[in-house]
Amino acid sequence: MIFGLFRKRNNNQLIVVRQYELLTSVARQPIFYTDYEVPDTVMGRFELLSVVMILFFRRTRASATSGQELAQEIVDAFFEDIDYSIRELGIGDNSVPKRMKKLAGMFYGRLESYAAAMDGNDRVALAAALRRNIYPKAADGEASMAALAEWMMTAEAHLAGIEEDAIATGSAVLPLPAAFGQQLV
Asked: What's this model's pTM, rounded to 2 decimal places?
């Protein structure tokens, strides 16, 4: 009887894995770290993965119930991946829950701040929020984050045009970032 609670989730497993791999492959693009001013550090990678997950999460909020459930499962996979990575870095088991709680708070805080800027189509506010989060100790003006903000707006528009079938099958893709001066694909 209790195993029936997990049946739907197990049916989504392949879809979740496929979609999560597509999303993380975008966040691993070297150009983000070379041209878009995201630091190639553990926290820089967390920030970029958060951006990608937030974009997907925002797209699926308008989806049918199954798309929203899938989005939650992908966010869960994201946090499971982070948990695994923290443990791989050698963080003790007793410290992991506290760090996970902090990282979850950071993620949902970013979701709110980026959403406010994106809902208002405010690239300047989005770049400022990205700068605050990606470079919390840096002086104002160190990294503009304008290119990343522009990519996020383009990616959100791209995701808005994706059919529900792509969401339901775990095959939604984000546009790849372009080098400065080139158009996004």
From this structure: 0.84
Reading phi first (left if > 0) and then psi (alpha if -120 to 50, else beta), residue 139 is in beta
CA 95 to CA 90: how far, in whole Å? Answer: 10
Nearest to 164 by CA among 59, 91, 39: 59
Which residue type sits at 91?
I
Give me the chain's average pLDDT, please: 85
Q: pLDDT digits over 108-142, tens only?
A: 999 999 999 999 999 999 999 999 999 988 765 57
How far apart CA 152 and CA 175 sit, in angstroms, is 10
Query: Of 136, 179, 131, which is closest to residue 29 (Cα–Cα)?
Result: 179
DSSP 104-170: HHHHHHHHHHHHHHHHTT-HHHHHHHHHHHHSTTSPTTS---HHHHHHHHHHHHHHHTS-HHHHHTT
CA-based torsion, 140, 141, 147, 153: positive or negative: positive
- Residue written as tokens 């406010």? 116
pLDDT at 2: 43
pLDDT tens digits for 7-53? Answer: 445 568 899 999 999 999 999 999 999 999 999 998 899 999 999 99
Which tokens in the block code for residue 23?
């999303």
